[in-house]
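Give me structure tokens for this 160-residue protein.
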Amino acid sequence: MMLFFRILSRSFMLGVAYFMAVLSGIAMLAFSIFSWRLQFGEMDGSQPIEELVILIFASWFGLIAFFTIFFHAFTPVVLLSLICEAFSIRSLLAYILFGGLTGLFLYFSSFELIEEGALQRDGLLVLAAGFVSGFFFWLIAGRKAGSWRGSSIKRQIDES
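Here you go.
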């Protein structure tokens, strides 16, 4: 019975970690795109009303992007989480790589690539957002991967 509650609490923690990872990835993308536009003069501050409207629409599109990424990344993240939980993979590097690969997988499976410059820039932004998402997933849930079975295995070995 105790094992059931540990698995249940671990599943809840993985869900919270997934939500926060997607949220951090979207924040990274929004910050990167906004910084990119500021740096290259697409938003120069000369027309504040237009920029305010752009930021409001960007917020709505960010919300839509959050739910789109949340639902599309669910299957790959669940598979990677099951692998990490089964083999007790707790490495920060593994989670960062998994996050980056998941981001690139979503990027290449979701968009039509138009020009090579956009591919390089957008691919790097998505890869960075995936790295940030992987870090936050590790920070919340990955550090204790496989911990739900640790004490019961020790107890079974001690009882033998």
